[in-house]
Amino acid sequence: MITRIFLVVALLGLSACEQVNQKLGLEDPAKKEAKAEQEAKAVGSACRQSGRAIEDCYSIYGWLPKAGIYAGWREMDEYMRENKLETVAPQLPPPEGPGSKKKKKAQEAAAESEAKAETKAEPEKKAEKH
Length: 130
Prior knowledge:
Blueprint: H1 2-15, H2 17-24, H3 29-50, H4 54-60, H5 66-82, H6 100-129
């Protein structure tokens, strides 16, 4: 009885092993690369359907492999030409890539410091005119 319970618990634990490894970042590199390639093809297809240039897709989705993006873009281009489909205008702005929030905060901080420097310089200029 105890051995059966132990076997059931062990099997349940091992079935979630792949999910645990994925959460910990211990994925098999081949599976991870295949997944990224599939995502890149999907993104490339979506970029082509929305009328975005391939260079824009490369810059927006810099973390995905360019070869996959191009393959998806090319397949969708061929499909759209065969079926005479028009592009669909994107309704949302492109997503921000990883690390772009840090860049944006740094740019905002620089802009604020420049604005503060300009406001401090303006009273000095007014004092000089009088």
